[in-house]
Request: fold
Amino acid sequence: MAAELEAFQVTFLLPSGEQPTIPIGREEHIWDAASAAGIKLPAMCHQGYCLTCSARLVDGGEVDQTDSLVYYPEDRDAGFVLPCTGKPRSDLRLRTHQAKQMREFRKGRKLIAPYSWSEE
Ligand code: FES
Reply:
């Protein structure tokens, strides 16, 4: 299989429950693929900045965040990902709706955390 056609199996754990696993290509943004499969995820900027779409890796894995405007090594170390601009590099299980948690995490490290004041 050509590398650009490679796909990974991605499962979303929403507050409402686990969704059926879907294949996502390595050049697809995770949020777009979920939306196309009928899985509604939160989003606002779609640029990897606002943190509205934040999710967290459940069992580890790799996500390419090079399309994100702001993404820190600390985010990666803590397992936070931004599906709007993230591309899979492994099979993934993602706990969605983690904006509050990611903003708190960023604030605690004095990193950019847009809109965090609205949740205090
Ligand atoms: S929608 Fe803004 S960071 Fe993903």
